[in-house]
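One record is given unchanged without comment:
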Amino acid sequence: MRECRPLVSIIVITKNSESTLRDCLESVKSQTYPNVELVVVDNYSSDRTREIAKEFGAKVYLKGPERSAQINYGVKMAKGQYVYVMGSDFVLTPSLVEECVDLVCGGCDAVIVWNVSDPSKSVWAKARFYERLSYYGSGVFEGARFVRRDLFMRVGGFDEDLFANEDIAFGRKLCRLGVKIGRTKYNYELHIGEPRSLREVVLKTYYYGGSVRGFFRKYGEYSYALPIRFTFFRGWFVKKMLKEWPQGFLLIPFLRVLQTLLYLAGFIVRPKISPYEKYKATK
């Protein structure tokens, strides 16, 4: 039997990302799976983002105005049979790509990668860590971003009208095709760009609210509007919270209610300027 070692193109999207990009790309270069192409699609950064990307031998392209357009352009320029889409404020565990390749070589068409928040950044990041942990394996609040390139192109890639929940929307399009989707068990991507203050949570959530209208209208995923999600009540999660961080039973609902109100504000009065971009540029 011929060895299964397809070329994997890792698409990293950036915007004024110099504070996190080096850690991100070092984690890409440290992957145990060797057959990887690195593609960075930058949204016209004003810092050293592109210079750092070139230091790591990445193919660097410019594209905007938002991350879905960047992703689609990166996949268009990629050479791999499989593509993996990630943000510039994530780091990968060393054998993540290898586990994904094992899954697709075993018959999967796409893979959901376990997404973990870095809880050390702030108490709000810790709340997001446990919130995201509750989603694992739910099949609802997760989206596949490691996928066969031909399937990516077949469903039309990421929805360029969205800049929030765009990965979830993409996953729904894959599900409509009836593709087989796997899930990483041993490896994960760590989000190191977690909020360090409640102010940052407010600014970013309000901005993302401007994309919620299109998400609801096109995909009808109204469960995302619920501040309290069913995954919080799964038995294993409740036991883990009681043992490790019982105060999270108050902080996570508070954060979710706040975010729901901010999404609603952004839904009604769409932000004209990205406060997230301003934050990154002045960080």
